[in-house]
Specification:
There is one protein chain. With 346 residues, the protein is of the alpha/beta class. The chain has three domains: 40-177, Glutaredoxin (3-Layer(aba) Sandwich); 189-221; 222-333. The protein has eleven helices and six strands. The strands form two sheets. It has a four-stranded mixed beta sheet, sandwiched between helices. Strands 5-6 form a two-stranded antiparallel ribbon. A hairpin with a 7-residue loop joins strand 5 and strand 6. Keywords: Endoplasmic reticulum, Membrane, Signal, Transmembrane, Transmembrane helix. It is found in: Endoplasmic reticulum membrane.
């Protein structure tokens, strides 16, 4: 039987449409398949953070057409930069994991799969760093379902948002995605087993401690402990240690002109290194200890010649220490300190 051209054309059209439909329905990288794969990867992570590489970025972000049914919050990391403590990459990575774990604990249902927390490491994902245009760390980027270009920096987290660590990251996610992260759930400082051991040790040691307290044989009854503590607090105060802790000042810097040389004293009033504070604090402590020795110990010496000799040595050393402090202050700030003499002495 001959087949008409119209019937043949209709059969070819039906076959063509069915092939297109079957190919589209059999696509293994459909939205639901990608979401299910991300869910599977997330379940294998303790904190819910997915480790992605160049292949994962290409599969879940580049090859997947927009709009995607999910957003991805990416933490960019570099193992070789973990030694630079000023970047705080390891601390921020732990806080990022806390945000992910908190989101998983406080959400269920459809909202749970609307955002995934991922990280990529530089040594294994250099091309992804280039595609995102990341050239400085720390860096966190939100890629929403409508983001088509990875180089779009509109989803970048500001450096100021890292100030409050996990809390700031959670606020960033809630503001950008309208999802609820919830209060950050931090692990307890001590586990239940550790608390049980500490309580048992306290109970066992309590009778022995009470016995020593009644006899006056504890460290709190040792005057040498209080003397050492007073000296430490004095040095801690005059060395500017609190300033170094608050400002996180380094002990020394590397010389720009000679990388093999270290700079312990920075000339200029805008910054003070830790070594500077310790040096000046040591000089102050020397003067303070000599003054305490002269007023509390030397006065009990009966030999007058010994008193005079020690007093002379104390005056010379104290004068030298004060002179060094004045010299360092003048060298650093440029301000001079002039001695005052009574007019009758001139």
């Amino acid at each position: 039987m001959a087949i008409s051209k119209e019937l043949l054309s209709l059969l070819l059209l039906v076959f063509y449409l069915s092939s297109i439909a079957s190919s589209s329905f059999s696509d293994p990288d459909s939205d639901s398949d990608l979401t299910n794969e991300l869910v599977s990867l997330r379940s294998n992570s303790e904190s819910g953070v997915i480790h992605l590489d160049d292949h994962g970025i290409s599969k879940f972000l580049i090859s997947s057409p927009t709009p995607r049914p999910y957003s991805i919050l990416v933490f960019f990391d570099a193992t070789q930069l973990h030694s630079k403590t000023e970047l705080r990459l390891q601390e921020l990575r732990r806080e990022f994991g806390l945000v992910s774990a908190t989101f998983l604990a406080n959400n269920n249902g459809s909202d749970l799969n609307k955002i995934f927390f991922c990280e990529i490491e530089f040594s294994r994902s250099q091309s992804s760093f280039q595609r995102f245009g990341v050239n400085a760390l720390p860096h966190v980027r939100l890629v929403t379902g409508s983001t088509s270009k990875l180089s779009d920096e509109s989803g970048q987290m500001d450096q100021s948002d890292f100030a409050r660590l996990a809390e700031s990251m959670a606020e960033f996610v809630e503001q950008r995605t309208k999802l609820t992260v919830g209060p950050i759930q931090r692990p307890p400082f001590l586990s239940k087993a550790q608390i049980s051991v500490i309580v048992a040790l306290i109970v066992i040691a309590t009778p022995f401690v009470i016995k020593r307290i009644l006899k006056g044989e504890t460290l709190l009854h040792d005057h040498r402990l209080w003397l050492s503590g007073a000296i430490f607090i004095y040095f801690f105060s005059v060395a500017g240690t609190m300033h170094n802790i608050i400002r996180k000042m380094p002990m020394f810097l590397q010389d720009r002109n000679d990388p093999n040389k270290l700079v312990f004293f920075y000339q200029g009033s805008g910054m003070q290194l830790g070594a500077e504070g310790f040096a000046v604090g040591f000089l102050y402590t020397v003067v303070g200890l000599l003054l305490a020795f002269v007023t509390n110990v030397l006065v009990r010496v009966r030999n007058l010649n010994v008193q005079r000799l020690v007093m002379l040595v104390a005056l010379v050393v104290s004068s030298w220490a004060v002179k060094q402090v004045v010299y360092l202050d003048n060298w650093k700030t440029g301000y001079g300190i002039h001695a005052y003499w009574p007019s009758s002495w001139q």
